[in-house]
Design a protein that fits this description.
The complex is a heterodimer of chains A (about 220) and B (about 100). Chain A has about 220 residues and is mostly helical. Chain A has three helices and two strands; from the N terminus they run H-H-E-E-H. Chain A has a domain of about 140 residues: Helix Hairpins (Orthogonal Bundle), CATH 1.10.287. Chain A is about 75% helix and about 10% strand. In chain A, strands 1-2 form a two-stranded antiparallel sheet. The model of chain A has no long low-confidence stretch (mean pLDDT about 85). Chain B has a single domain, classed as 3-Layer(aba) Sandwich (Rossmann fold). Chain B is built from five helices and four strands, in the order E-H-E-H-E-H-H-E-H. In chain B, about 45% of the residues are buried.
């Protein structure tokens, strides 16, 4: 159904044709964008699954060791041992552009480079299980950071894909058919007017000829 | 320069302190919610939350899904994994594809 507000004029027709052309071009571009985003997205989802499994496994190990440590040591001692960390982490974030979606890229540096320097306590008052737990945590940390990056990227991409998908669908199923219908309506109306005009002219010509004939 | 925080119950997150991360304790969703919003306002780029805590504050976590910082990442606490992290991944896929592709 062409909308009731459309004016069957030549100017409107030219305008609509221009808009249709833009819409078709935009549709093609957005569709390409969606496909490429999707490709990247699925790759990241796969990576995310792997990393998550790895991190969850690593953390479970660390937690198990930590539980044992907290069973051996009193809670006060445990807290005291961990109260002042030797290590500190500084995180740097850059933005990477994937198909005009800004995603974070993290890089971090630790204050102490030596991996054996993570224990913020003397060895006299703590149990060996605590060392095991911290070691396990330290090992899983790098993966955790990567997981954060990948997971955030995935969330941001998912949002943008959703948006793009909606736009593509709106163009494909609403805007473009609407324009086409309106253009058809205007063309028909203009043609009909043209035909009406021709018939009228023929009729007038006949009448004029008749008059001239009779006059003779 | 950005910071990293770990949010969860005392026993689950205490160990992260030794790694140099900032640790916040929260045992119930109410505290967790307040802490999360506070961390988001400050200069934290990544916030790790234990699944046990995150279970009751999904709405608050969803708030930060579409912004670049902070990245709120679920990790299993001392009670083991609840599968929430995997479920969140699944829902992101669903959101992007528009259908469950398994």
């Amino acid at each position: 159904m062409p909308s009731a507000t459309v004016n069957p004029t030549r100017m409107e027709l030219t305008r609509l044709k221009g808009r249709l052309k833009t819409a078709v071009r935009g549709h093609k571009l957005l569709k390409d964008k969606r496909d490429e985003l999707m490709k990247q997205f699925l790759e990241i989802v796969r990576k995310n699954r792997e990393l998550r499994a790895k991190v969850e496994k690593g953390l479970e190990e660390a937690n198990a060791a930590f539980t044992v440590a907290s069973a051996v040591m009193s809670p006060e001692m445990l807290e005291q041992a961990l109260l002042y960390p030797k290590q500190s982490v500084e995180l740097d974030m850059q933005l990477k552009n994937i198909m005009s979606v800004d995603v974070p890229v993290y890089s971090f540096h630790t204050k102490n480079e030596d991996p054996s320097e993570i224990y913020p306590y003397g060895f006299a008052q703590t149990s060996g299980e605590l060392d095991t737990a911290l070691d396990a945590l330290n090992r899983v940390f790098r993966d955790m950071l990567e997981l954060a990056e990948v997971e955030k990227t995935m969330q941001l991409l998912a949002e943008d894909i959703e948006k793009t998908r909606r736009r593509v669908n709106a163009l494909e199923y609403v805007m473009i058919p609407n324009f086409q219908q309106n253009i058809r309506y205007i063309t028909m109306k203009l043609d009909e007017n043209e035909r009406g005009n021709i018939t009228r002219l023929m009729k007038v010509k006949d009448m004029v000829l008749q008059d001239a004939h009779d006059f003779k | 320069m950005y910071k990293i925080a770990v949010l969860g119950d005392r026993d689950s997150v205490l160990g992260f302190k030794a790694l140099g991360l900032d640790v916040c304790f929260a045992d119930v969703a109410e505290t967790g919610r307040r802490e999360l919003h506070r961390l988001a306002k400050e200069n934290y780029a990544i916030v790790y939350i234990t699944e046990q805590l995150a279970r009751n504050m999904q709405d608050d976590i969803a708030l930060y899904k579409d912004s670049v910082t902070p990245a709120v990442i679920l990790i299993p606490g001392k009670g083991g994994s609840l599968g929430l992290g995997a479920a969140a991944l699944q829902s992101s896929v669903e959101r992007a594809v528009g259908a469950d592709i398994g």
